[in-house]
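Action item from last week, closing it out:
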Amino acid sequence: MHAWPASEVPALPGKGADLQIHSTATGGRVTLDPGPVARIYVCGITPYDATHIGHAATYNAFDLVQRVWLDTKRQVHYVQNVTDVDDPLLERAVRDGEDWTELAERETALFREDMTALRMLPPKHYIGAVEAIPRIVPLVERLRDCGAAYDLDGDVYFSVESDTHFGEVSNLDGEAMRLLSAERGGDPERPGKKNPLDPMLWLGAREGEPSWDGGSLGRGRPGWHIECVAIALEHLGMGFDVQGGGSDLAFPHHEMGASHAQVLTGEHPFAQAYVHAGMVALDGEKMSKSKGNLVFVSKLRQDGVDPAAIRLALLAHHYRSDWEWTDQVLQEAVERLGRWRAAVSRPDGPSADALVEEVRQALADDLDAPAALRAVDRWAALQESDGGTDEGAPGLVSRAADALLGVAL
């Protein structure tokens, strides 16, 4: 599976600061020092509907992580998956009378278009669940052979009790885990499981549903968590720098994935930091496909909204915060974009060297994009009121907004 084309990242003078970021596992800041190549895995979409603002906010957060690392003169090894076979996708295809593979391909293509328009830097490896099945099957077999997995009526489950570190990602108690498992794709009430929290590794073939040869596992398809583990282990290995996604992935997805990997390798941790973006609401409720209260990036673009304004609307909120999308949020972003473009269109202006360092420091401080925007606002206001004589300043501000914030002026 191919990703989307990369936009050029302008070079800036000097070098950015190392990133300090909040990790769900520690409950506080960690300073990341990746070495010359930074490694990040971000969980991708299940392509049964178009990219909504909640998706865009999540991928914007991890795009900022990449940009901070690139500004420290590191390379970035970024991996993202596509869950191109799963119950929601199959259910939507049946509902609409459509072939599930065609639905997945169409929505994945639209996602690529949205990511390109928003100037999200693409992953080095963009891997679908279906193409990862040959890598997944041996891992499930290994877990079963070492006693960390068991068969139940043709399905294979992972035993959470096989990992001594289980629970260290989300830090939730058992009752909270059980409730979230039921809400987020688990089956804690299924009879015969050793532990209600045990997640599916391999779903045996069901009539009318796609299935693949699973070797000794029989025909079937992979569970959700083992998909990401197989892809991450192949392309990043253990102990990579950041595991990222929305806050609703901390449990069960990231918790279970960490346990799978830690049992498979005997190493800990799966990732150095578990970073989670907040949820975006619409009309008082979390924006989600199941509720249908969505604002689609592609629809905004079709309506003539500049993608740079959409990106500024996302950047106006700290990535870890929960916030609500409104017409006012978008209008404020459109107006900010207009002020910034007017400011950099002049032949000279106030010195921008300090501004670049201020933006760098804000982003290194747990991706404080709102603080970075306020810094550019102050420079633009100074440009409007007093101007300046530095002929290189407008160009430097324009390059910094692009390189660090992904906003093309």
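Closing note: The radius of gyration is 22 Å.
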